[in-house]
Amino acid sequence: MDCSPQKSMLGFKDSNLVSINGNRLSLVEAIVFLSVEVGKINWTWLIQTYTKVLEVREDLAAAVIMDALRHLELASLESKALDLQQELEQKWAGEGTAGRWGSTCHIMSDAALASSLVDVSGGVTCNISHTHYLPCKQGVNPKGDNKYT
After folding, report:
1. Range of the domain at 67
2. SUPFAM superfamilies, alphabetically (predicted)?
3. Is residue 148 part of a domain?
4. pLDDT one-digit tens code per residue, 3-25
5. What is the per-residue pLDDT across 83-106, written as a single tens digit (0 to 9) for each?
6. Whether pTM exceeds 0.85
7. How many domains does the chain have?
8. 49 and 65 belong to one structural domain
9. Which of 53, 79, 90, 120 allows an S-S link to 15, with CB 3.0 to 4.6 Å?
10. What is the dihedral of CA 115, 121, 127, 133, to 10 degrees?
11. Minimal CA–CA distance to 132: which of 7, 47, 27?
């Protein structure tokens, strides 16, 4: 099996993953594809807890997707919008953690977060190797790029 570093271009439209390497894929297909790409280099994370170490394999594709989207957000949104977005993410997570799914605060945070991502479109090329995954500097296309419309 080829374990050499891979480059994968993740394309987003309105913050939704729509393609990998120019091929349109559903989210489920994209996760399967990335799991194979990342999995073939036996990439695993160890999460240290107080009493044991957990090995996480299932979340690798999600980690690559979420990291690429975060880089695209940083390239697309104003710094004040990013600050507010992080505050809203904390409120949203706090409401969910407290068991208040569907509360007014949770619904408002969810709607505001969704609206902040409407224009986040473009692509991020990631280098994936046995030691890391990193976005390539030239891979980020700020909004206004019609390639993903």
Report:
1. 1-77+121-136
2. Argininosuccinate synthetase, C-terminal domain
3. no
4. 567 788 999 999 999 999 999 99
5. 999 999 999 888 888 988 889 998
6. no
7. 2
8. yes
9. 120
10. 0
11. 7
